[in-house]
Write a structure and sequence with these properties.
heterodimer, A: six-stranded mixed sheet, globular, B: mainly beta, seven-stranded mixed sheet, four-stranded antiparallel sheet, about 0% helix
Chain lengths: ~110, ~110
């Protein structure tokens, strides 16, 4: 089977750091993606991890542990515009992307 | 470079009708995947096309079908529409099929079935 779990919602304060976790159990693994989706808009690509470790890209970082079936997205220096849904997605061999339900992040002033 | 485009952006249909949605991938991309997004189910994979061939298929009924043309543009068709087909339909394009390249999403088509 396949299962991807993320917290449903999180709240954080502007300027703070927030970590959004994602755990997965899938038949096969070919990389893990994080997407950001603002209400009414299309998902936009944030990061991609295929090997274990931390990938840093500006204020956003993503971590992967394949042995633990675990990833997290770290957002630093939070801004109001970071309020959005964050989607974790596992790519299976063959190309199919399996998405989690998404984490709704609210950034408060 | 232009992004992924989808037409139409909004569509209202009634039960029993059929609908065709269109997706033009980023120039040079040959893979097009389709997803259905609803509040209850989240993003669910419908199918993927690469070089005019369906490479992957999700768990949707046969009423959902698609095709890809030689210029990589793709269409998705839903026949005999049901109320539960109301959703945001997203397409995503990528360079290759089954690989590890990034998929980029279009703005989506919001389908409402009355």
């Amino acid at each position: 089977g396949q299962n991807i779990d993320q917290p449903t919602e999180m709240t954080a304060t502007e300027g703070a750091i927030v970590q959004i976790n994602c755990t997965y159990q899938t038949s096969g693994f070919n990389g893990l993606f994080w997407y950001q989706q603002h209400a009414g808009e299309a998902p936009t690509f944030l990061s991609y991890n295929v090997l274990d470790g931390l990938e840093e890209k500006g204020r956003f970082s993503s971590f992967l542990s394949r042995s633990k079936g675990y990833s997290y997205l770290l957002l630093k220096e939070l801004q109001m515009k970071d309020s959005a849904s964050y989607l974790c997605a596992v790519r299976r061999p063959g190309g199919k992307l399996i998405f989690g339900q998404g984490t709704e992040l609210s950034v408060k002033p | 470079k232009a992004g992924v485009t989808q037409t139409p952006r909004y569509l209202i249909k009634t039960r029993g009708q059929q609908v065709t949605l269109s997706c033009s991938p980023i120039s040079g991309h040959r893979s097009v995947s389709w997803y259905q997004q609803t509040p209850g189910q989240g993003l669910q994979f419908l199918f993927e096309y690469f070089s005019e061939t369906q490479r992957n298929k999700g768990n949707f009924p046969g009423r959902f079908s698609g095709r890809q043309f030689s210029n990589s543009r793709s269409e998705m068709n839903v026949s005999t529409l049901e109320l539960g087909d109301s959703a945001l339909y997203l397409c995503a394009s990528g360079l290759s099929s089954g690989g590890t390249d990034t998929q980029y999403f279009g703005p989506g088509t919001r389908l409402t079935v009355l």
